[in-house]
Design brief:
binds oxa(dethia)-CoA; 352 residues; 3 domains; alpha+beta; 23% strand; single chain; Peroxisomal Thiolase, Chain A, domain 1
């Protein structure tokens, strides 16, 4: 079996900064509430028509490819993680391939739909392909354009204030050094909680989920109704829903659990982690996890204050920042961990 290594990292965030104060112009919220509950001070929103998940992914990828020192045509596989794809179908992977100008290589493009855990799931998939020798060089990207799909009325405030746009990319390559690279990845899911953090509409469920009912009540749709009905538009049901407190409580349990699971497998302790890069869901969640693992401040990277929660993009953006800051060096033990919609969660341990 081979080992895979991250040889290049990059990220891209749109220029437009949206502060908490900016959001108060649309909904009944406050800078104080948002900072106290989430730690977020500002986020970025992409430019309509110019920036999309695939164009942002391409910008992040170009940086990662350059840093890896590879020719873009060497990419054997693209793995693209997003919940906010440019199109309903096809997925963003093929659009990214086109955007990078490598379509003629015919490299496959795989889309990963695991929301906040998308990058860790994607990393695990890429790792398996490299381990078995099937591919040598894989481009893995997480990219999100949340600002297109949020409810900017007061009704949507608990969800809307959290999310931001951005992209992060990593080039994974077969490692020549067996001691370095991805040591393990651990993935989990519990579909019983699928609707607790979800965007139900539009979808092929063939019905009509009404958020006002006790729990996504279900009304028969007329045969021939399309994904989007006038009633969904009228009732404002084309937005994400989140049972915030349940997600929070489950996340603070699952993050440490899945990190310990990976540590146990490689025979390391939390103390040995040089840098934990958690999915940037909420600063309070990261602080809880830090406390439970007894990590020092310098052992964890948080940047949700600047970018909000960018779902599949949050880990690669944060990982790139930590690396650029010189906080991740050769030989360091790096841990990635995520929890989110599905519920899905996972972790990875990397010997840099
Ligand atoms: O990345 C995917 C994973 N997602 C997460 O990990 C998110 C996990 N959950 C959370 O981070 C938190 O649950 C939130 C930050 C989303 C919400 O914080 P909370 O402390 O759970 O608030 P809540 O939803 O229980 O609401 C408390 C109060 C409510 O008012 P009442 O009913 O007590 O009067 C809300 O209406 O805060 C109100 N509220 C707001 N007020 C001002 C909710 N959102 C806002 C807002 N501004 N944006």
């Amino acid at each position: 079996m081979y080992r895979s290594r991250i040889t290049g990292l990059g990220y891209y965030v749109p220029e437009q900064v949206v502060t908490n104060a900016d959001l108060t112009r649309h909904m009944d919220t406050s800078d104080e509430w948002i900072q106290e509950r989430t730690g977020i001070q500002e986020r970025r929103y992409g430019k309509r028509h110019e920036e999309t998940p695939s164009t942002m992914a391409a910008e992040a990828s170009k940086i990662a490819i350059e840093r890896a020192g590879i020719d873009k045509n060497e990419i054997d596989l693209i793995v693209f993680a997003t919940l906010s794809s440019d199109y309903y179908f096809p997925g963003g992977g093929v659009l990214l391939q086109r955007e990078l100008g490598i379509s003629e290589s015919g490299c496959p493009a795989l889309d990963v739909r695991n929301q906040c855990s998308g990058f860790v799931y994607g990393l695990s998939v890429a790792d398996q392909f490299i381990k078995t020798g099937m591919y040598k060089t894989i481009l893995l990207v997480g990219s999100e354009m949340h600002s297109m799909g949020l409810d900017f009325s007061t009704r949507g405030r608990a969800v809307t204030v959290i999310f931001g746009d951005g992209a992060g990319a990593a080039v994974l390559q077969r490692s020549e050094d067996d001691a370095r690279g991805i040591l393990t990845t651990k993935l989990h899911a519990d579909g019983r909680f699928a609707e607790e953090l979800a965007m139900i509409n539009p979808g092929s469920h063939g019905g009509y989920f009404d958020e006002d009912k006790e729990k996504f009540g279900y009304e028969e749709a007329e045969y021939g109704d399309t994904f989007i009905t006038q009633k969904m538009l009228d009732d404002g049901l084309l937005f994400p829903y989140m049972h915030g407190q349940l997600v929070f409580k489950t996340a603070v349990r699952k993050f440490p659990e899945v990190i310990h699971e990976a540590l146990k497998e490689v025979g390391a302790s939390a103390k040995e982690i040089k840098m934990l890069v958690p999915h940037q869901a909420n600063l309070r969640i990261s602080q809880f996890v830090q406390k439970l693992l007894r990590l020092e401040d310098k052992q964890i990277w948080n940047n949700i204050q600047k970018y909000g929660n960018t779902t599949a993009a949050s880990i690669p953006i944060a990982l790139t920042e930590a690396w650029e800051a010189g906080e991740i060096e050769d030989g360091d033990l790096v841990c990635l961990a995520a929890f989110g919609s599905g519920f899905t969660w996972g972790s990875a341990l990397i010997r840099w």
